[in-house]
Amino acid sequence: MGKIEWAMWANEQALAAGLIYATGGIVGVAGQFRGWQFAAFGIAAGVFVCLLEYPRSKRGKGTSVERTGQYCFTLCVKAFGPLTRNYYVRAFLHAALCVPGGFMLATVLGCVCLGIASLIYLSAAIHGEHWEPILPRTEPPKRVGDSIKEPPQNPPPRPPPELRRKKADKLETAAYDNPMSVTVNE
Amino acid sequence: MVSHGLTVVTAFPDLLLCFIYQISLFCGFLQNLSSSLHLIFYLSLQFNIMGNFAANEGLSIFVILVWLGINAFLFVHFYMAFLIDRYYYTRVILGHALSWARAPAACLNFNCLLILLPVCRNLLSFLRGSIQCCSRTAARQLDRNLTFHKLVAYMIALHTAIHIIAHLFNFERFMDSQLMINSSYLPYVLSQIGNNDNTSYLNPIRSNETNPTIVMFTTIAGLTGVVITLALILIITSSMEVIRRSYFEVFWFTHHLFIVFFIGLVLHGVGRIVRGQTLESVAVHNPIKCHRHFETWGKNGTNCPEPAFAGNPPMTWKWVVGPMFLYVCERLVRFYRSQQKVVITKVVMHPSKTLELQLKKKGFKMEVGQYVFMQCPSISQLEWHPFTLTSAPEEDHFSVHIRIVGDWTQALYTACGGDKTVVLDAWTLPKVAVDGPFGTASEDVFRYEVVMLVGAGIGVTPFASVLKSVWYKHVQENNVFTKKIYFYWLCPETQAFEWFADLLQSLERQMTEKNMSDFLSYNIYLTRWKDAEAAHLRVQYEAEDDPITGLKQKTRYGKPNWDNEFSTIATQHPGSKVGVFLCGPTALATALGKQCISHTESGTEFIFNKENF
């Protein structure tokens, strides 16, 4: 298999697990099932996992594709520094969050999915990956040289007028007129 | 990784774009309400748009509507099927959650039947060949197989969710009726039936000392349910576009969990956990009349003996056994075709990491614009990668141009001696297997007198085949219908496609020899350049050949002004039908579609062909 960044798949799996966990929790609470307290925990844990996993990490190699509107989430997740950067912490966190789900049927599926996501994150951490925020790049403003008073206006590559002129002895074979007058000794 | 020019155009984004265009037209129309001429113009534009749209998309929309209709019908039918008397007592415990669980189950049966069919590409190829003589539009729908496969997958996910949620309620209610120990409570009484023989029971939860989670893991239905749902979730998360495009192998290997899915699906109903009254029992014990007297069932002097229950036999296998068989045949056919001998006759290393392989296979017949799947057992036994064919059908070999972008292509490059400078002997070249060709042929190109071909980026690959084929046709038969080709190539950088520039160069040379230099007019547009390159280009401004491509026609910079291009072509070919073919992004397709409509005046008609290369 190629060099996959496991964290990318772990992220998708964890996001799906969060949604499933929360949905199972909602069903458990709305139906007033036995053990609905675990379901309520499931809703909270599921929503938390979704918020944590929504911002995608920047890829080590290649272009990163953001999820829609993930910028604010990126800032929140970035604020926790090493807690969210390190994937060992995430693996352990997901493993811990998934355990209470196993006590109630409605959240069992969320529990297992989150457990699998935790394992994939562990694999990512072992491979040395970590979470990087995707931030918009601010380009430094281009410095215009002191001797240039008016920068060139035309975009397509075109030689400046001095180079476009032809030598005076080749005027007959030229295909265009000189933009500047030319004398033999210039 | 893959290197091919397939653009799968789905129906729904086009529908959306069409509506947006409609709205913008309508706003424009509103501003010009005064003139009746404007009204006629607007209406004719509408018919044109709808005509084009209907021709291209009509069949897809129809297929999708039929599919949705069957889903809706199955859902409602099986919902009602569990509202009959046989299930009266089951519903006493479960309520409507029973129907809510069984209806999506029926839809799941139907969709699991469908999901295997679009990926049987050899079967589809065979069908396409038989349909193509009747209707090219119908044949082209078969190219949208992957889109349909994804739609069916989403529907499976949706129905699985409904099914699971309904069963959560079912488990809870079954458990409740075991726990409310009260002989005056009908659900409890019902749950005690069958305690002696363990066959005629209604409630699959047989005791009150358990809990739903344990029951789920100890019944066949529960255990297989968990396993197949997990398989489904893993398949879906690894099929997300981000993962699929970056790490194809993870997607492909995880997708094989579908084997687990189908085995579990067939076994899911074996435990016969959905129970209703047996027909013999209903004959002697009418639930409508007897349910009130549940405290005296089976006692002396009543008309109501104890009801007996049984489970429904598993039905899923009847739905999926056919497609599973077809898919097994498909894999066998792929295996058989992969064993056919394919010989690499020539390996060409093009600049910028492009590898050209010329191959020969006995009985291989191709048409322009098709693609093949290639496998190299010495690199990977399981990976098949698609590549567009770049040779013309008239040649004695078939060729693919492979860009080296990932592990597989890199390994192929090394195996073919890419990093060595000596010429390799033929027997040292790796054995490859080829499956195909697939895809709808683009013979439409040859039906127009004047043709505009637009290729963007990697979309230029199928046009290699088209251009070569048109040239061969001209050389071999002198009355080829196509008289003039306008070719537009838009790319951010030409380096990756220098092989294509070489092809254009050789075509240019051959045309000059035959005095036909104005047969093909090509325009290459470089849409991005670096400052360093720009400096070099300035210096080379006066050179006769273009500094980038070495062709006589100079490279242009930026994007083409389509208005000008269309107007020029319209004035140069009055009264003729111009076919416009595109292989590129959807935004370009919309732009070109609009240009075709607006420049179709009296005389010149531009017909936009949305080809799925």
TrEMBL record, chain A:
<keyword id="KW-0249">Electron transport</keyword>
<dbReference type="GO" id="GO:0043020">
    <property type="term" value="C:NADPH oxidase complex"/>
</dbReference>
<keyword id="KW-0349">Heme</keyword>
<keyword id="KW-1003">Cell membrane</keyword>
<protein>
    <recommendedName>
        <fullName>Cytochrome b-245 light chain</fullName>
    </recommendedName>
</protein>
<dbReference type="Pfam" id="PF05038">
    <property type="entry name" value="Cytochrom_B558a"/>
</dbReference>
<keyword id="KW-0521">NADP</keyword>
<keyword id="KW-0472">Membrane</keyword>
<keyword id="KW-0408">Iron</keyword>
<dbReference type="GO" id="GO:0016491">
    <property type="term" value="F:oxidoreductase activity"/>
</dbReference>
<comment type="similarity">
    <text>Belongs to the p22phox family.</text>
</comment>
<keyword id="KW-0813">Transport</keyword>
<keyword id="KW-1133">Transmembrane helix</keyword>
<dbReference type="GO" id="GO:0020037">
    <property type="term" value="F:heme binding"/>
</dbReference>
<keyword id="KW-0479">Metal-binding</keyword>
<comment type="function">
    <text>Subunit of NADPH oxidase complexes that is required for the NADPH oxidase activity that generates, in various cell types, superoxide from molecular oxygen utilizing NADPH as an electron donor. Subunit of the phagocyte NADPH oxidase complex that mediates the transfer of electrons from cytosolic NADPH to O2 to produce the superoxide anion (O2(-)). In the activated complex, electrons are first transferred from NADPH to flavin adenine dinucleotide (FAD) and subsequently transferred via two heme molecules to molecular oxygen, producing superoxide through an outer-sphere reaction.</text>
</comment>
<comment type="subunit">
    <text>Component of the phagocyte NADPH oxidase core complex/cytochrome b558 complex, composed of CYBB (heavy chain (beta)) and CYBA (light chain (alpha)). Component of the phagocyte NADPH oxidase complex composed of an obligatory core heterodimer formed by the membrane proteins CYBA and CYBB and the cytosolic regulatory subunits NCF1/p47-phox, NCF2/p67-phox, NCF4/p40-phox and the small GTPase RAC1 or RAC2. Interacts with NCF1 (via SH3 domain). Interacts with SH3PXD2A. Interacts with DUOX1, DUOX2 and TPO. Interacts with NOX4; this interaction mediates superoxide generation.</text>
</comment>
<keyword id="KW-0812">Transmembrane</keyword>
<dbReference type="InterPro" id="IPR007732">
    <property type="entry name" value="Cyt_b558_asu"/>
</dbReference>
<dbReference type="GO" id="GO:0046872">
    <property type="term" value="F:metal ion binding"/>
</dbReference>
<keyword id="KW-0560">Oxidoreductase</keyword>
From TrEMBL, chain B:
<keyword id="KW-0812">Transmembrane</keyword>
<keyword id="KW-1017">Isopeptide bond</keyword>
<keyword id="KW-0597">Phosphoprotein</keyword>
<keyword id="KW-0408">Iron</keyword>
<dbReference type="InterPro" id="IPR017938">
    <property type="entry name" value="Riboflavin_synthase-like_b-brl"/>
</dbReference>
<keyword id="KW-0832">Ubl conjugation</keyword>
<keyword id="KW-0406">Ion transport</keyword>
<feature type="transmembrane region" description="Helical">
    <location>
        <begin position="250"/>
        <end position="271"/>
    </location>
</feature>
<dbReference type="GO" id="GO:0006952">
    <property type="term" value="P:defense response"/>
</dbReference>
<keyword id="KW-0472">Membrane</keyword>
<keyword id="KW-0325">Glycoprotein</keyword>
<dbReference type="GO" id="GO:0043020">
    <property type="term" value="C:NADPH oxidase complex"/>
</dbReference>
<keyword id="KW-0851">Voltage-gated channel</keyword>
<keyword id="KW-0813">Transport</keyword>
<keyword id="KW-0521">NADP</keyword>
<dbReference type="Pfam" id="PF01794">
    <property type="entry name" value="Ferric_reduct"/>
</dbReference>
<keyword id="KW-0349">Heme</keyword>
<feature type="domain" description="FAD-binding FR-type">
    <location>
        <begin position="331"/>
        <end position="444"/>
    </location>
</feature>
<feature type="transmembrane region" description="Helical">
    <location>
        <begin position="61"/>
        <end position="84"/>
    </location>
</feature>
<dbReference type="InterPro" id="IPR017927">
    <property type="entry name" value="FAD-bd_FR_type"/>
</dbReference>
<dbReference type="GO" id="GO:0046872">
    <property type="term" value="F:metal ion binding"/>
</dbReference>
<dbReference type="Pfam" id="PF08022">
    <property type="entry name" value="FAD_binding_8"/>
</dbReference>
